[in-house]
Design brief:
By secondary structure, the protein is α+β, with helices and mostly antiparallel strands. 37% of the residues lie in helices and 29% in strands. The protein has a three-stranded antiparallel β-sheet. The structure holds zinc ion (ZN). Zinc ion (ZN) binds next to loops.
């Protein structure tokens, strides 16, 4: 458990989606961080940072995977809009 550096006591873990930019691409990953319920300060442990790094790499790989079915409608509609 982490304690809030502002002296509010124990921080709680919170899981939420966040968007990060990696090599010029916006990736949405699920990250678990510690949040202080009093002041809302966020902190990540070294382990959590390592997990986030893995999530980014996974999401980056997914981004380029051509057989990903959810990517296809978006890619086609964007193509049709452009011309
Ligand atoms: Zn606090």
């Amino acid at each position: 458990m982490l304690s809030c550096p502002n002296g509010h006591g124990e921080m709680q873990t919170s899981e939420h989606d966040r968007t990060v930019q990696f090599r010029g691409i916006d990736l949405t990953i699920r990250a678990e961080v510690y949040v202080c319920p009093t002041c809302g300060l966020e902190a990540g442990t070294i382990e959590q940072c390592a997990v986030i790094q893995d999530e980014i790499i996974d999401a980056y790989a997914d981004h380029w995977r051509p057989s990903r079915p959810t990517m296809r409608p978006n890619a086609y509609s964007r193509m049709n809009h452009g011309r």
